[in-house]
Amino acid sequence: MTELMLKYFRDKQQNAQSEKVYDTQCPYCSMQCKMQLIEQKIVSRKQYKTIGKDNPTSQGRLCVKGMNAHQHALHNDRLKQPLMRINDELVPVSWETALRTIKNKFQQIQHEYGKDAISVYGSASITNEEAYLLGKFARVALQTKYIDYNGRLCMASAATGANMTFGLDRGFTFGLNEIPNTRVMILAGTNIAECQPTIMPYFEKAKENGAYIIAVDPRETSTTKLADLHLQLKPGSDIALANGLLKIMIEKGLIDDAFIADRTEHFDLVKDYILSLNFEEIINETGISMEELYQTALVFANEPSGMIFTARGIEQQINGTETVMAFLNLLLATGKIGKPYSGYGAITGQGNGQGAREHGQKADQLPGYRSIENKADRNYIAEVWGIREKDLPKKGVSAYEMFEHINKDKIKSMFIMCSNPVISNPNTNFVKKALEKVSFLVVADLFLSETAQLADIVLPSTSYLEDEGTFTNLEGRVLLREASFPIQGKAKHDWQILCEIAKVLGKEKYFNYDSAESIFEELRVASRGGKADYYGITYDRLRRENGVLWPCPSEETPGTIRLFETKFAHEGGKARMAVVKIDTIKRKPAISSNYPLYLTTGRVMSHYLTGEQTRKSPSLAARNVEAYMEIHPDTAQKFGIELNKLVKVTSEKGWIIVRSQFSESIRKDTIFIPFHWAENQNVNRLVGEQLDPYCRMPGFKMSVATISPFHH
Ligand SMILES: Nc1nc2c(c(=O)[nH]1)N[C@H]1C(S)=C(S)[C@@H](COP(=O)(O)OP(=O)(O)OC[C@H]3O[C@@H](n4cnc5c(=O)[nH]c(N)nc54)[C@H](O)[C@@H]3O)O[C@H]1N2
Ligand SMILES: Nc1nc2c(c(=O)[nH]1)N[C@H]1C(S)=C(S)[C@@H](COP(=O)(O)OP(=O)(O)OC[C@H]3O[C@@H](n4cnc5c(=O)[nH]c(N)nc54)[C@H](O)[C@@H]3O)O[C@H]1N2
Ligand code: SF4
Ligand SMILES: [Mo]
Description:
Layout lengths: L2 H15 L1 E7 L8 E9 L2 E8 L11 H4 L1 H5 L9 E4 L2 E4 L2 H19 L4 E5 L5 H15 L4 E3 L6 H11 L17 E5 L3 H4 L4 H9 L3 E5 L12 E3 L6 H14 L5 H7 E2 L1 H10 L2 H8 L3 H13 L4 E4 L1 H4 L4 H14 L9 E4 L18 E2 L3 E2 L3 H11 L13 H9 L5 E5 L3 H4 L3 H10 L2 E6 L11 E4 L8 E4 L4 E5 L12 H11 L11 H12 L11 H7 L2 E2 L25 E2 L20 E6 L15 H4 L6 E4 L1 H6 L7 E5 L4 E8 L7 E5 L28 E7 L3
Parallel strand pairs: 6-7, 6-16, 8-9, 8-12, 9-10, 11-22, 12-13, 16-17, 17-18, 23-27, 24-26
Antiparallel strand pairs: 1-2, 2-3, 4-5, 4-18, 14-15, 19-20, 20-21, 23-28, 25-26, 25-28
Helix pairs in contact: 5-20, 5-21, 6-15, 9-12, 9-13, 9-15, 17-19
The structure holds ligand MGD (2 copies), iron/sulfur cluster and molybdenum atom.
């Protein structure tokens, strides 16, 4: 080897050794797996990879999305400078220009149409600090009542159902570590294997230990394959199923009378109603046989411990709140909550699906899970914020309803942070028109998303690699996401963006923060004494203790792992059972000769939500390059649909074109389409605008549609 070659290899080795490690958490689901970005410099080229890092929840595991997350975060398309619409084109401008324009426009609109003419649309993918600040920004900087967020489309019914039943909403009422020891579980409308993959070992362990697993899903999925019994019901019929199970339990004397008497209210009403039902109707509505109903009811009631998990399959229904409550009736009637290896798990979706719903970006909510309609709560927060209670706006409307308000000219402007509603809302043809109509739209995003493309101003935000802050994972565990990767271009953290806009609006004194931690210090106080009490949690503790579970009222108390051991959170300490009428199913669209198929929607392993991030990641995009429709081959034949061909899917709301994929295991009356794609592949063009009356959740999981082969 020549001297020159030797030198080359020596240099290369040295360079390769220059390795940097950045700690962070996955930007995707509610597991919030801890991870590290490894930057290796080889000669002058940088190479990146992501590896898992040990922690109590995911124990170092990552799924395919997490492993490839850096591909979108380091993508060239990341926004690096503000953009402003000039002559109908988005062009780069300075922060100064962007902020000045926002100030002028916001002030002009509020002057002309009133404070409530501006609306705010937030997200559960931002940190607790940012979610908290966004609520404060709407109420204090803009003084508008119109703020809501994408969690309304996600966990609103689970949250409302749990609040109505238990008086408190925290996703899991038990510790993750209890799952392996439970004896029986019902997985209702959850696809954990694809949506929270790193949680699977807890369930696999339970199975090894002999737990009986019942899955409720109209489709076969990687999750239902884990089950001992798969109840493949008609979409949207879960209330009939849960009520049928309760009827068997009551009739066979399998309920826990002592628990019902000591710890619950209203059982007698529930019992009267349930006993008045007939099985014929239940079998008819659900398509589930009497044998399967019996098997489920007997195993669940007879085992000494048991858990019920729900996710969007039963929750994203226009009777979602009631559906959740029907399943909670089963837990309460059998006394399977507040004791070891038992309880309710509403499996949170987004990275901060839990925390972001606690600190005040929901239309009716103030920090710490306080209510904007409660005088004492209003007084408390007004004092923390240093404003008068009477200047605190009242309750606004839900996410989708804000677009209806735009259409009715009640809202003139919108500020969207970290969401892509043009893809994710129901009836998206309408939503897109509303966003085109709005007179001034500001979007803060990492990319020029389909929504950002409609904006008048686009603000570049920082990602999970750069932005430090806390997230509350699906257990209710608050975690500190460390993030120190260098900021790209002129992007700013979401909290900085909020502070800067507040400043130009003359509200600087309420938004004086120099770090995420300084916002968290205020959040602690704002949440103090509320249901979601974070007062005892500090950044130091989070570092030392690997996260703390809320409620945590003081620095001396440990977090709370198992909830409701001695009492529920309602006044009087009892859980409230509720009569949940099967008739609520009739609220939904029925199949007809025009629209003969049920359409349900959901996710695939390799893509995330509107796909804005995962479609930019070559390794993930390669796994599913386009939208598809899962259909039974017999149904396909009936409609003249061939395998792997383009199909036009039509509902009352619109049409889309997707490719056919056959599945022998899906119900013959049902098609499934994931929602990760845009434009003509966006299934939300088909979903209707009807909302759950209690929580305003859209019915993403049940529409009716028709299909035909698509010829160019
Ligand atoms: N890979 C991936 N993981 C994700 C996400 C993602 O986009 N991609 N998103 C994250 C977010 S924000 C969320 S909210 C969660 C969502 O997590 P999940 O709720 O588990 O996911 P979905 O696929 O929406 O729906 C779950 C299942 O409900 C079934 N289902 C449909 N209709 C019905 C019905 O009427 N009754 C019943 N019982 N089941 C029905 C579907 O067939 C589907 O298998 O996942 C999180 N994790
Ligand atoms: N048909 C159908 N529709 C559904 C669902 C369904 O199951 N079926 N599920 C619903 C559910 S559960 C959810 S949660 C919603 C989600 O709906 P969305 O919130 O619209 O989905 P995302 O793709 O997460 O959009 C996030 C946007 O923020 C950007 N972003 C990412 N990180 C950051 C950040 O740190 N800061 C800022 N400023 N921007 C960032 C991304 O680039 C992206 O454009 O969709 C709902 N829509
Ligand atoms: S997507 Fe969820 S399970 Fe997968 S690595 Fe990220 S946080 Fe973990
Ligand atoms: Mo979600």
